[in-house]
Structure formats: C-alpha cells, structure tokens
Design a protein that fits this description.
It is a single chain. This protein starts with about 30 loop residues before the first helix and ends with a helix. It folds into two domains: about 180 residues, P-loop containing nucleotide triphosphate hydrolases (Rossmann fold, 3-Layer(aba) Sandwich), CATH 3.40.50.300; about 100 residues. It has a five-stranded parallel sheet with strand order 2-3-4-1-5, with helices on both faces. About 50% of the residues lie in helices and about 5% in strands. It is α/β, with parallel strands linked by helices.
Length: about 350
C-alpha cells in the first residue's frame, strides 16, 4: 500500500494539518488495532450498527477510521468480500472518489463558513438537515450510504435535535458515523442510539514509529520532544512539527512557569505574533491547556492536588474556545490567561 500523500487544495480546510494528508487521503491507522478489529467484525458480519460514535481525544485517528469504514462499506457493502483490516488501496476507484469528495454515497457534515468567510462556531441545523435528503435518495445498485459528522460535539441544540430524529428512524442500508472529541457534550439520547468505538492515545513506541515515517527529515531529538508534548495524539505532534508549533508550545510552558507579575511587554509581543498566524490562537490555547493538565497530573502524583488548578484548566480552555469561536482579540485573550495563571500561582494552586 502506498503511503498517504498531501495535495494542494484551493479551499482552506481547518481540519487539514499543514504539509500532511487530510484524513480522507490517509490509509494508515496507527495504534488502534483493537478498535479497528471490532469495527471490521461488525461490518463483515453483515450486521453493522446504524450509527457509530467514534470517541476519543483529538488527533488519535477517529476521522481516519471513519473514512476507512466508509471506503470499505461503499466498496464491498456489509460483507466478507473485502480485506479483514478494511483497507482499500489508494488507487481503488472508491478511494479516488472519496479523496476527490465526489462519491455519491458519502456525505461529510462539518462546520461551514459564514457570510464573512469565517468558520462558524457551531455545526448548525441546516447542515444536519442535509441528512434527510441524502438518506432519502436511492443508492446505486442497492448500495450503502454513509454520512460522517465531524465533529458531533460542535452541534448546537437545534442541530442535535435534528440528528436525533434521524437516529430515531434510521434509514435502511445507511450508516451514520459521529466523530466526538468529548462525547459527554452530546445528548444522552444521541449516545444511547449509537454504538461507541473508543480510540485511545497512542503509546510512545507507536508514536515514534509513526513520526519516523511521517516526519523522516526531523531528528530523533525532535521526535522525542514531539512525543512528550503530544501525549499520545499523533495529530497534535504533526501540528507541533509544522510552522511555529514547537515554539508556541515552549511559549505556553514559559507562561505557565513565569514567576512574579506578568511581563506585559513580552505578553503583548507574544499576542501580536499569535495574531499574525492562521489558527495560531487556537493552537496556543491547546498547548496552554495541556501544559496546565500536565501540572495537575504531576501534583496529583505528589499528593498535592488542588481543585483550583482544575478550575484554572477549565477556565483557560473555555477562554480560548470562546476567543477563537468569536474571533476575539488575541492580545486580550493572552493577557487574560496570563492574569488567571498568575493569580492561581499566587494562591498556591500551581
């Protein structure tokens, strides 16, 4: 099987990591053998569920698995005719159609751009309503239809209720795949009507093998640093490797480790640099949240847990999520997070 490849795209895709193939163009699934085997047994038995919930942290292969399932089902149906690992080669006609986003049996729902060309903050009801027409169409030659919702956590209430109606009356020969980074955000009624497949963080050995193949020009020391920072998320490791990823992660660590009052001159310079990048504020927020999470775990191992640190972690994640969703000023967001961290340290929470 030839390796996945990155390709040029005229349309910016927020879920594409710079220099790396999109999940629909990816054919290697790292470190999720047990989950893949469970999905394969269900598909090849002829009795797949009508909806799967692929749950796990970002960057561990959920979208890659979703496209792998879709390609197999669109190529072979729910039969044993295909390979046991559900793998289709990249030169298969179905694979080519999926890569080109041109297969009539596959619908992918995600957040769209608003009237100003900015990514919407939620996956809205208009997008979810497309499922009705899609599943209502007759599949060619009695084939299957597959819809992927990426990510289901991002639905607003109206969208979630519209999806629930589809789940209550599932279409024949139709499979709905929900991708969830935080499945606790989903309605309990949605979770109860799906079969869950858990994907877990990758171990260090798997991470190193993957990075050696995907980032062959990086040094062994770079691989080690990426593994330490990514905490089992291959997607995050690849994000860190591109652009200013490693520098942003180091900036997040420096902000968390700083003593005394915040250095507002340095913070303003950092905020200005973040404001010039694409998705840089979101990445910095992710790195900062993960750095706080590591501190919480380290203190827990020393029996020094403090609920105020957990509160800081929740506040930081919410602050950056709101700022990126509403396109707020990066300068104010960085300064606010620095003040919160300084106050938590003053109170002994970090």
């Amino acid at each position: 099987m030839r390796p996945a490849r990155a390709r040029e795209s005229d349309e910016e895709e927020p879920d594409r990591i710079a220099g790396q193939p999109h999940p629909r163009e990816t054919y290697a699934l790292w470190g999720q053998g047990q989950t893949l085997a469970r999905a394969a047994r269900a598909l090849r038995s002829g009795r797949p569920p009508q909806a799967w919930l692929l749950a796990g942290p970002p960057g561990v292969g959920k979208a890659t698995l979703a496209y792998r399932i879709a390609r197999y089902l669109l190529r072979y149906g729910a039969t044993e005719k295909g390979p046991e690992d559900l793998a289709l080669p990249a030169n298969d006609p179905v694979s080519r159609q999926v890569e080109a986003q041109a297969h009539p049996g596959l619908l992918v729902l995600k957040r769209q751009l608003n009237d100003r060309g900015k990514l919407k903050t939620v996956l809205d009801v208009d997008e979810i309503r497309r499922l009705g027409g899609f599943f209502g169409m007759t599949a060619e030659a009695g084939g299957w239809r597959v819809a992927i919702v990426d990510a289901a956590d991002e639905m607003n209430d109206n969208a979630a209720n519209a999806l629930l109606k589809i789940l209550e009356e599932p279409p024949p020969r139709g499979l709905l795949i929900l991708i969830s980074h935080a499945q606790g955000r989903l309605l309990p009624t949605i979770r109860s009507r799906t079969q869950r497949l858990d994907l877990r963080p990758l171990d260090d050995t798997t991470m190193r093998r993957a990075l050696e193949q995907l980032l062959p020009d990086a040094s062994a020391n770079d691989h080690t640093q990426l593994i330490q920072l990514a905490e089992g998320s291959l997607g995050l490791a690849l994000q860190l490797s591109s652009g200013e990823g490693l520098k942003l992660a180091a900036d997040a660590e420096s902000l968390l480790s700083a003593r005394g009052n915040p250095d507002y001159v340095a913070l303003s310079a950092l905020a200005d640099r973040i404001a010039r990048g694409t998705d840089t504020l979101a990445h910095f927020g992710d790195f900062l949240s993960q750095a706080i999470s590591r501190r919480i775990r380290e203190r827990a191992l020393q029996n020094q847990s403090d609920e105020r640190a957990t509160t800081l972690w929740e506040q930081t994640a919410a602050l950056f999520e709101r700022a990126t969703g509403l396109h707020l000023d990066p300068r104010q967001t960085v300064l606010s997070s620095a003040r919160d961290i300084a106050e938590a340290r003053r109170r002994g929470a970090l």
